[in-house]
Structures are given as C-alpha cells and as structure tokens.
Prior knowledge:
The chain is mostly beta strands. It has helices at 3-9, 47-52, 96-99, and strands at 20-23, 25-27, 40-43, 56-60, 64-75, 83-88, 101-109, 112-121, 124-132.
Amino acid sequence: MGLNKQFRAASVPDTSELRGHYEVRLVTGFLPPIRFFGHRKYFPGDADVENGGPGGYNEFFGTIRVGSFKIDRGQSALGDGQEVLRIVYNRKGNNLLLRTLTDEVKRLGPGEYLGRGVISIGRLVFNSFYFSL
Length: 133
C-alpha cells in the first residue's frame, strides 16, 4: 500500500498521546526508513505548557534543538478532507522558512505514527515528505 493510502487509512491520535522523545525517520516507500543526524522530536508532558509556552522541539545529535512547535487536531492544510494531528512550527523564534512547515501525523498502530511535512507559502500548499515516529 502506498504512503498516501496508508496515511488516509490511519487514525488521528489525541493531542495528549505523543509524549517524550520519538525517533524521526524519513519514509520514501521504496527505501528503508532513514534517520538523519540522530533526529528526534520531543513532546512535553503537559499540552498546556506546549501550546502556550516553550512547546515541543526537534533535536539533532542529542543536543541541538531546532524548531519549537505546538500541536493541535484539525483539518489538513492540503484540503483533502482529512483530520490530522498538526505539529505547527509557525511560532515566534522559528525562522521564516520553518514557519511555513506544518507536520501532519496519523497513527498506523500502537506506538506507530506516519507523518507528512506540509509546506504552505501563500496559496501554494504541498506535501514535501513523509516520516515515521
């Protein structure tokens, strides 16, 4: 089954479901999942702190934090009618390029998540990559 079909068939996790560190791997559908630079996402234990305060972040090499984010549930930015868990990078402190990115995540099974990176620049919106958590 292709990544688009897997994503569409998956369920939407609750905003409180992802907590702690998760390894991030690029998923292409034809190569094994690839992990770059020790990439992980960190989701705080308190969603209120996450959405009103410092938020979650991406981590590389175990120490470098990049891209503060908040999470919520809502409609995909792609306009395909799917509800998703959104990882929103449009936050103060992130660079302009990163602010155009929203990760959209769905649950494939217990502890298995598939995400897609969606870039929005004005009216241009597109899925740029898939990843697993």
